[in-house]
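Here we describe the complex-level prediction in full. Unlike the single-chain runs in Section 2.1, the two entities below were treated as one system.
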Amino acid sequence: MEPTPDTSVYMIAGFAISFITMGIYVASLYIRNNNILRDIETLESMQTDKPKATKK
Amino acid sequence: MQAKPTALKVLDIASILVLAISTYLALFFAPTELVMGAVQRVFYFHIGTAWVGLLGFILAAGSGIIYLITKDMKWDRFEVAAVEVSTVFFFLTIVLGSIWARPAWNTWWTWDPRLTTAAITELIYIAYFMLRQGIDDPERRARFGAVYTLLGGVSAPVTFMVIRLFRSIHPVVIGAANANQEKMSMTPDMRVAFFFALFAFTVIFIDLIWHRLRLGNMEEKVEQLKLKVSM
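The structure predicted for the assembly as a whole is:
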């Protein structure tokens, strides 16, 4: 019977790529979430400032 | 903005836990496969990501149908969430398959029916985002997206079934239909790692879909606020 080949480098690469890809996606969700929250804040402040500006 | 629901926080923690357990089972609990060696351990993540990838494409097609019937934009947002999360997972499936193929088949890639249909499926859903980017009107974008995911959804069962219908070097994991197909046999410990990986990636998938849905809802709010401010 042939000995089991050493393919651990491929295994490490596979798991590393899995975690890196999932990490990048989670980070992208987090960054997009923060950007949108900032946009909402800005737009809401613009909306509240608008009536004041028209009164003047 | 609504605070993060407690259930989502619990799901976040559960996702991290099941991913850690699944990694442990794949790396240490499951025995080393004698013919392929350690690389076979990526199989558990390969199948887990493929399962949620194809599931998401089917769910997106389903939500596309519901959108076309109801015209409710929440189904469009669900469709986008399902496609986005599934595209990421299905990309991982292809990459892990390629890494596994190198020592097992002595090549990174071959135009086998399974690999070809998987690559086409991934490209279909990358093109989905390009299509959406090109349409400004939200309702038109949602309608086109729904029809697209409906047609694209066909590629998911085709990818799953192709190794059962045509000659392929890709092994059949669940239910080999005839003696010509290479069937993977697993030990009881391998089965534990296998089924837990399916469970773990399902939990992670639900968690990510929920996060992406919340993001979609906020994007909708930004659009409405922009309209109000510009008026």
